[in-house]
Write a structure and sequence with these properties.
heterodimer; A: alpha+beta; 22 strands; B: alpha/beta; Rossmann fold; six-stranded mixed β-sheet; four-stranded antiparallel β-sheet; 7 helices; 10 strands; 31% helix
């Protein structure tokens, strides 16, 4: 076909220039692919972190407000335990009664968030756009062994040992942090065990604490038997131990005292992604004072290199890609215009032969589009290589998730008393897998072809205005 | 074929006006061979470009087969060139990346014949100029004379009514020049074309039926031009 023959021959004639244009487009497109792949990888990492926190299938989470640090000198909540350090030594106090804490072991299972009535779970489940709702208790067990000589000169400070405990709703196995895990040993909870002192332990915690099926763990001075080991997604931040919600409610404590009939987290599944914003709004109205978050808003709470990489990919990466693409388009356009200038005599001759301007323009556009397609193909290759290099050589990203410990400390001294509710942080290392999807490849090729078309438009603009006599006069 | 009345072409360069063709009246009959002589820069090529619709006169009428080229739209003039007018240029003007056959084929593209028809006509055109065996050669692989033959084949493949040749032998040596002009004359006789040939070579001009001389944009038909060339099929030319 004449069109293809002429096109091929012309590209071959100016091979160096054609390669330069195609490479320029390839670099621009490759950068776009790499940045999007990295951004996708970061989003996946974030989503995996969040899934580990809240489990697969959770679209909205409702949590009671995290208790802030208590005011200095304020009274501790009723039935709560406080630990006081004063010149007289260490004391454990509850409801105004204190006793010497030296040689004692403090074990407190506290709520990370303010409690919510368990009946609210059913109210949330009835909202329009909600498919399912389940309650849970996200708790922290803190154990401190106070030495017998504590308070005396030279006595060491007690080191707390804490682990996270999740009170899981056995009636909704598909919601909550346990839902994203895989049982690797033993079994998960059965309905018959909903009020039993049994526990499922996270595989990482089990390995570190040398626990297996049949082992015993002590939570708030109650012994639980390990019935299963669960493995969560690597990038998640799972609780260390899971116990039935009823048992967690029975033995845990939070601001205001007992957690009986309470939850501090509600996991909600929406009917569809488009329902999520409306569901979030409805829950906020139904439960004022709670924190209602979706996956996208939770992502902003995660700090560490995961979040800074996300910002880098989304902001710097995005703008850098756009700038490089614009530069590539500009270079392609300028080179195409220069090539058209050099072929003015040829085009003038073709016009003299009776070729219409649009036929000649189509020829120039065809050459540019072919270069765009070649640039796109090479660009996709470069992008895939870039993504593979990032996956291979990028360090694991750190994700830090702040949590409240549920413990209340108070120190008393000559200068007065000081109170604090220490927070705990989960630090995770999350691998980065920069993934290139089909839609990214399609976008890359589209961008490159667009670059080719743009260059063709600029190049062929002159042809429409070219008068054959002027073109031929140049030579003669 | 052509009737030019009061044709002027003025080029403007800033405030300066350069008249390339002045008050030109000319009639070219069907099948006639007209040579236009003159020194460089006196308007010969401009006249040829006006005859070919490559340029429009500043004023005047350029009738081609009863149509005023100056009044037609660009698309109509382009179509006319595609169908009825063949060009031969001094510098051959072959597309360097296309073979001899493909260069000839380029002239048929605007007419949209089928592939088989295109190939047949291209082969016949190349053979008529003695280059049937050079169809796949690129212009860079052909001599100057051969390139001009390809250009002639390209001009004639569409079976035009008129052939406009602008110094076709200007870039050729003497021997090749004579061969080429013999070929042109032979084709003119055989096909009954109207041929307008621009040249500064008097020996070539004398072979035409009529000779006009362009001087400072004005055309004067020489009354003493030898009409050595008599077409076999064209009607006898009128007085100069």
């Amino acid at each position: 076909m004449f069109f293809v023959t002429y096109l091929r021959r012309e590209l071959r004639r100016r091979m160096r220039q054609a390669i330069f244009i195609a490479l320029g487009l390839a670099v621009g497109v490759g950068l776009v692919v790499t940045v999007i792949a990295t951004s996708n990888g970061v989003k996946k990492a974030q989503s995996a972190v969040l899934q580990g926190l809240y489990g697969v299938g959770t679209d909205v989470t409702v949590t009671g407000a995290a208790p802030g640090p208590p005011k200095t000198g304020s009274k501790p909540p009723k039935n709560s335990q406080t630990f006081q350090i004063s010149p007289n030594g260490a004391q454990i106090c509850s409801n105004g009664h204190c006793h010497n804490a030296a040689g004692q072991k403090v074990d407190n299972l506290g709520s990370q968030y303010a409690p919510i009535n368990a009946s609210s779970v059913a109210n949330v489940a009835r909202l329009h756009g909600v498919t399912a709702a389940a309650g849970g208790l996200a708790l922290n067990d803190t154990q401190i062994s106070i030495p017998k000589n504590f308070g005396q000169a030279g006595s060491p400070l007690p080191q707390p040992n804490s682990f996270t405990v999740d009170g899981a709703d056995i009636g909704h196995p598909l919601l909550g942090p346990l839902s994203s895990g895989t049982i690797t040993s033993g079994h998960s909870f059965t309905k018959a065990e909903s009020d039993s002192d049994v526990a499922v332990v996270d595989s990482g915690y089990a390995k570190a604490s040398k626990l297996k099926v049949g082992s015993t763990v002590t939570i708030d001075k109650v012994k639980f038997t390990v019935i299963g080991i669960v493995s969560q997604p690597q990038s998640g931040s799972p609780p260390d131990i899971y116990i039935p919600l009823a048992r967690a409610q029975a033995i845990g404590s939070g601001p205001g005292g007992s957690l009986k009939g309470k939850v501090n987290t509600i996991y909600v599944t929406a009917a569809s992604a488009s329902d999520i914003p409306a569901v979030q709004k409805e829950i906020s109205k139904l439960l004022p004072g709670t924190t209602v978050t979706t996956a996208s808003s939770l992502a902003s709470q995660v700090t560490g290199s995961l979040s800074s990489t996300a910002k880098l990919a989304n902001e710097l990466g995005k703008w850098l890609s756009i700038l490089v693409l614009i530069a590539a388009f500009a270079v392609a356009s300028l080179l195409t215009m220069a090539a058209v200038s050099r072929r003015v005599r040829d085009f003038g001759t073709l016009k003299a032969l009776g070729w219409r301007s649009r036929r000649i323009m189509a020829q120039v556009m065809g050459e540019s589009v072919v270069l765009g397609i070649i640039g796109g193909a090479v660009g996709v290759g470069l992008g895939l290589a870039g993504a593979a290099l990032i996956t291979r050589f990028a360090s694991k990203l750190s994700a830090t998730i702040p949590t409240a410990s549920g413990l209340h400390f108070q120190s008393v001294g000559p200068g007065g008393s000081q109170s604090s509710s220490p927070t705990a942080e989960h630090n995770l290392l999350v691998p980065l897998h920069a993934s290139v999807t089909l839609d990214v490849i399609a976008l890359a090729v589209l961008l490159a072809v667009a670059g080719g078309v743009l260059a063709g438009i600029f190049g062929s603009w002159r042809i429409g205005r070219l008068r054959p006599a002027d073109a031929l006069r140049r030579v003669e | 074929m052509y009737k030019l009345t009061g044709v002027n072409k003025i080029y403007r360069k800033g405030r300066q006006a350069v008249p390339a063709v002045r008050d030109l009246d000319l009639v070219i009959e069907d099948g006639e061979w007209l040579a236009v002589q003159g020194r460089t820069g006196h308007g010969k090529t401009t006249l040829l470009q006006i005859l070919g619709g490559l340029d429009r006169p500043t004023s005047g009428i350029v009738e081609f087969d009863g149509q005023d080229l100056a009044q037609l739209r660009e698309a109509q003039v382009t179509r006319l060139r595609a169908v009825s007018i063949g060009f031969i240029f001094q510098t051959f003007n072959l597309v360097p990346t296309l073979s001899a056959a493909e260069n000839v084929e380029a002239a048929l593209i605007p007419l949209h014949p089928g592939l088989a028809e295109r190939r047949r006509r291209v082969t016949a055109a190349l053979e008529s100029v003695g280059l049937g065996d050079r169809a796949r050669h690129l212009p860079s692989e052909l001599s100057g004379g051969q390139q001009q033959r390809v250009a002639i084949a390209r001009a004639l493949v569409k079976e035009p009514k008129v052939l406009l040749a602008d110094e076709p032998t200007g870039n050729l040596d003497e021997g090749t020049r004579d061969e080429l002009i013999d070929l042109l004359e032979q084709l003119w006789r055989g096909l009954g074309l109207t041929l307008v040939l621009v040249t500064h070579d008097s020996s070539l001009a004398r072979r035409a039926q009529r000779v006009g001389v362009m001087s400072k944009g004005r055309l004067t038909i020489r009354p003493d031009a030898r009409r050595t060339a008599e077409p076999q099929t064209a009607p006898a030319p009128g007085p100069a």
